[in-house]
Give the backbone structure.
Amino acid sequence: PVTAFVPWDGRRSGNPVRFHSVPAFAAATDLAIDVPGHGKVVVDIGYGGTFYAFLNAEQLGLDVCSSKTRDLVNAASAVTEAVKKQFKLHHPESADLAFLYGTILTDGKDAFSEEPTTNICVFADEQVDRSPTGSGVTARIALQYHKGLIQLDQTRTFRSSTTGSLFTGKAVKATKFGDYNAVVVEVSGEAFYTGTATFTVEEEDPLKYGFFFK
């Protein structure tokens, strides 16, 4: 379960909203990967609900803040494909989750600072997140904690290079996840309604409580 926290004034919800993540961990650090068209780069791989590869965009000859989005997407996608071929992921509980969801290019500012650090998340079928990415911030915090760059309850601010939107993240609890030393991360940001849905259960429905396959 992922716990969410939403301010409520008796009439409506407000901002910021936040959640506590699943246990997040560093799957690999300083991993050398040969990326076609770019040569060898060094990546970190973190898990924050899904796996991401992380690297400074400068390794690819790009600037996460000023390069064209198409160029960043192409480079990040090349990294994702290279990592998939050259590194085997392991998830402590579910083999179905042991896959690389995408690559997050950063400005390289991983050491703790009060200043925001910028990244772009390229995931799935070359999609670009409009936000710094909840699971991505979670994984990046886990990596920074693993490397000793931040401590528990130190808050960092993360900026999306595409929209400028901001999240904050901090490790709030150290824990174990399988053989990994992990942390629970609190991610905070703004949320707004985009729609509502109504679900109805009819008493006559024989499958109203769900079902299992044996």
Observations:
- Residues 4 and 69 are 31 Å apart (CA to CA).
- Helices lie at 69-86, 134-146.
- The radius of gyration is 19 Å.
- The first strand starts at residue 3 and ends at 5.
